[in-house]
Model the fold of this input.
Amino acid sequence: MKKFRILFYSLIITTVFIGCDEEDLDLAPISQLTTGNFYQSSIQIDQALTGAYSSLNSLYDEMMIRAAIWRGDNSSQTQGYANNLELNISQYNENAGSQVSTDIWNTCYSIINRVNIVIQKSEDIEDYAQKQSHIAQARFLRALMYYELVRHFGDVPLVLKPVGLEESFTVGRTALAEVYAFVTSEFEAISNPSAGLSSNQNDKGRPTIYSANGMAAKAYIQQGNYTSAKPHLKSIIDSGKFSMQSDYAELFKESNDNGPHVVFSIQYDKTVAGMGNGQPQQVPKMAAEVPLNGVTRKQMVSDDLWFSYETGDLRRDLTIQNGWTSTEDGEFVADDRFWIKYAKNNSPATFQEWGVDIPIVRYTDVKMLYAEILNSESYPSAEAFSILNEVRTRAGLADLTSTELSSQSSFLDAIINERRFEFAGESNRWWDLLRTGKDEVVLSAFALSAYPYSSVKRLFGIPEAEILKVNDPSILSQNPGY
Amino acid sequence: MKGKSFNNYVVILLFLTFNFTFAQRTISGNVSDEEGVPLPGVNVVIKGSDIGTSTDFDGNYSISVSNSDVITFSYVGFMDQEIEVSNADSFDISLELGSDELDEVVLTGYGTTKRSNLTNSVSKLNTESLVDRPIMTLGEAFSGQLAGVYAQQSSGLPGSEFNIKVRGTNSITSGSNPLYIIDGMPVESMRDINIGDVESIDVLKDASAGAIYGARAAGGVVIIKTKQAKTGETKIDLDFYTGMEAIAPGNTLDMLSGPEYIEYREWGQTLRYINDNGGVYDGTTVGERSNKYHPRRWWYTNPEDITDTNWQEAITQQAVRRNYQVSIFKGVEGGNFMISSNYNATDGLVINTKYERFSFRANGNYNINDIVSAGLSLSTTVSRESGRREAERKEGAYMRAIVSDPTIPVDFNHRNHPLGLIDNPNPVLQMLNIKDFGKRKRSLVTSYISIQPIEGLNIKGQFGFDIEDFTYDWFKPMWVNKKARREARNEHRNDNKFLYQLTATYNLSVGSHNLDFLVGASAEEQDWEYTFLDSWDFGSDDIKTFNAATAFRQWDDYEMEASLQSYFGRAVYNFDDKYLFNFTIRRDGSSKFGENNKWGIFPAASVAWRLSNDIIDNPNINQLKIRASWGQAGNDRIGAYSSFGQLSGANYSFGNKLAYGFAPSTASNPDLSWETTTTQGIGIDFGFFGNRIYGSLDYYKNVTSDVLLEVELPAVTGLTQASVLNSGEVENWGWELELNTNNIAKGDFFWSSSLNFTNNENKVTKLGYGIDQIIGTSRNQPTHRTMVGRPLHSYYMYKTDGIYSESDISNPSPSRPLIKNAVAGNPAIADTDGDGVIGIGDRTELGNNTPDYIIGFTNTFRYKNFDARILTTAILDFKAYWFFGRYADAGQQGRNQLAIWANGARRLPSVNGVPTGEAYTAGNGTYFKEEGGRLPDFTDRWLYDGDYIRLKNITLGYTFDKETINQIGMKNLRLYLSADNVLNSTKYPGGNPEANNSEVENTLTTGVDYAGYPLSRVVTLGLKATF
Done:
């Protein structure tokens, strides 16, 4: 009897406890997708690509354009900044730890990683209809990011596939020329319709072959290579798909987003929370001139810019608000100027969510660069003068002729100067100064005596955080002057 | 046997009902000490029953017994003595001085051992020393009780958990908390466990002892066992206490009064006026100046509205603490049960803060026959807390009250006051009007069935769960502050854990050889659910629930799971109580770890030699044992999915058509595994003079490798969020002493002492991945540094060097460089790198927040029916950063300042706000000046020695004579008075040097105090009765 009992109870215990299966130790996250189980289908590849586009929003409405504006002579060096961060950049007094350059670096590499994954993982999936398009878009974004990195930082790590944890501490910088060569060859390659980019503009917001042509040209021109840039610009002009708006005011209206005056732009949508454009909010908190007001400004317009406009230039008041009325007491604050380009004629959803897109390549830009190239080939070029005057006419200004611009170099100066007003509040000015080598003359005169400009400021410092993380100058070195 | 125990049961009943009427026969005698001095109050109890008496004033006793009974004589400070009654009528007993502590049972994880046979470091918390203390949260019980255990109280908020650290901090960015085993169930916290139910607490301090708990034991293991009825015991225990709380010594801050504040502000504005006037004072009074130089305009327009408010008084209240516990015990041969209920309610010192807890417990065991037994331990708790978020968080109501303007009345947030509504809520109204309420339910249940098929073999199956459910509601009505919207928050968290466990133990004794084996397997499953809603779209103040919200501002909802599979074994060999060997091994597989590293093995070995049983034969050396141990344990405190590369939503709108996208947010790390702590330790256990002096001495060294470190990855990975990698190495070492002495035991008077001494130091020996140092930041500025070769989490700030004198400013020298825009009177920053300018290189390491020495000292006295216990703790050699100084000791104009900012202490003397013209002189560190250079926020100006000595508790008790109490049907009756936080001695100005309410989650920046919730002094009066 006793033996039976022992057996019986042993059996119970054994069945109940030993009978349990071994625990499943391979538990995947419930509330989150993982890199291990995503990227399995064409739809997921498409979503991963969208994930890469996603970071363009903050990159271009917060970091890149602002940094370029602060850097140039369009932005004040003394006034009303929210904190020292912006002022330091504007005064050429920032250090390698600057949050702005760090954010640009981080965001560019974040997008690069995302598209590297798209390119790698799409290879693992059987052919599907949009595969070529996905890869080509991914290459466009990657080349765009390297273009931004190389012109901001010089030599940068060139990674073309996802980087592992251990490996990431060993990645060094690739020479500027090599990075530029990669950028231009990529843009050139995908400007061929067979690479997969669309050749019509129906697919709004995605790069087309013309976007690739435009970026290829800009990247060449930034290196001073007019010859290679020319056919790319010409192909855009010859396509007949683009036109300059006849009214400058129409260019920055939300309703004209993705219109024929835009070759490539960053997309913003005020109807979805968090996806609006924050750039226009850089206005005084209580300015009655702006719907819904703004935050404390981070960008101040320089006096130099305001007073440099030709009399009668229609673009001035569409770009800059001169003084403002306080919503609190109705008082007018004179001589306090701020950018209004994106805010004027648009209305936001909340003060920080505007729908207007930010153009990266405008058709006007394409034409003006083309005029610049024509001028470099022969003087006087009738077509170059015609482009310049098309821009001036739209701005309400009189034509310039070979009488006023009597030499090749005076035409070049005129067109670079025209670009300053045409693209004020956009990012081109700083890069124009650099590529034409005018930066030292212009900015040395412009800089405050306490913080003189020097050519080392053409590049940002490699973010201090990155230098510290790698902690080996033989792998990741710092730019001179930082 | 059964019949016998039934008899006893009947006897007990009769005994209770008829008071000795039916005793079989009476024996009597006298009890004295070894020198023949009679001992009064000696407990004389029939073994295995509740029947007993105590000796009278002359040491005489008489008791009713039957011939087969065994009588136990016990008395504090003396060894117990047992006699068999047989047919004798009288016994005169002489008790021997000493202690039986060394024979007590210690829980070692899946088993027990006698303290005298321990081979590694296990400390037993003497629960006797906790009796009568008004302890709310179990963590408090650890204060000053155990060598090697630090119980840090970072907040005085009722119900807030203590931070328990066993032998220091092993990890850099991950938690180093111990694992808790409650009635066999491994859990993460002691939250809401009622101390009234706790029978014993044992702490496995080293990895050698902890290895049996494998991948989770690197931070030590705390084993808690709840009360069970002893065989033969039938009783009802009542324990009631109620007490008053007041702000603890040193926690009241001396601030400027209303008139002083006005004078202070006028001084500040006059300085500004003089500065703006080219440094010349033209003799104008405040009233004559423009608005710009008025401190507060309405002081001059509405002088009748000026008050003198003591905001600290206004934000605090007289708090009451109450505790009621009823426990019922019944134990018979073959079975027992214990049930209890407890209610604890503690008001907080800050108005409208409160912690309240209801807990219920049922423990029972039953042996169905001599083969099978089963048992259950069941507890359920509901706790409610009010005001936690508003009162405790940094820049919360308590802190802001202290710096509030003392000239404004407490109820000033109305339009009738000249100041009207202000931007920040009035802290008192904030506490009164904001709904801030959390409730938590926790059920912890374990059950087992065990069989003993053959002698020595025991197979035990165990099942348990720990379920915790927490809801939190927060609602801020309109008009608590200016222009504000209504805001609300609702959180719900549900954490569940399940345990399945099977163990087998086998004991084999052959001659002097004694072998104990354990093998076991266990499986644990955990899941978490969390939901969170946040909205600021409410139409009314009256409905505070989310049905009234019209939109969400933020929300979150997620679920997680984890599992753990374990196999473990232990072999203990004991030769003749002389040579002891202990080997354990555990293999843990955890879902938390990367697919390449799911399984880990944690071995341990320890040996001990009891010299006192072997080569030493000296009657005065009762115990002398040396031991040595080695072992490994792990730390698995990472997120459930840290090894996975996770994706987050990342959308884009193409031509205003939204497309859903996803992007990686964390790195995939298939190699991620636990961090391993390897312990090497040696120790001596001793007992001398009949164990009147006993204790132990330990030295240990812990090396923690593959530290779970949050590493910032280079951006080329595409990830900006830090990832947890196994990298780096940390060493902890120290020594510990536990010393107990029975100083005097003479007749009526008894005095014993218990001292524990802890020394712990650490340093980082490696960080890996090319990292030399990890900087911890507060407010985006470096405040802490963890650097190779240096202690963890050291303060890293600018060092001040007196103040700038007039001549420092007028004749700057490279040896005393100035900060930007410095003026005389500004604190001077030391040029520690000697480069002639003040820059980021001048930050320097300035100590750390981890105490090197911890001392606990308990003295227990007894005289006749009175007893007293005094606990003193000392926490030494650590720094604490009083960040509150930046608000209240910086000469700010908008906030009230410490009283030392009144005329003449911090400032140069002035009359009606006008400086009398004395010069600032170098080396005079007393004066600060508000105007001038922009000072770095983090300097050693507010870094203080945190060292403190605290008279932590005094308890006085009176136990009524058993004879008297028996007359009214009670077995025991005791009254007591207990006082906590009686005296405090520290140089730290902020009251609680252990406060930490800055970035609480950020382990890199420990010890930053924003005027944390104050500690309380509690005086309670209690009654304990046994029926």
About this structure: Chain A has two domains: 42-268+360-451, 279-345. Chain A touches chain B through 80 residues (CB under 8 Å). Chain A has a mean pLDDT of 89. Strands of chain A lie at 262-266, 320-325, 332-339, 358-362.
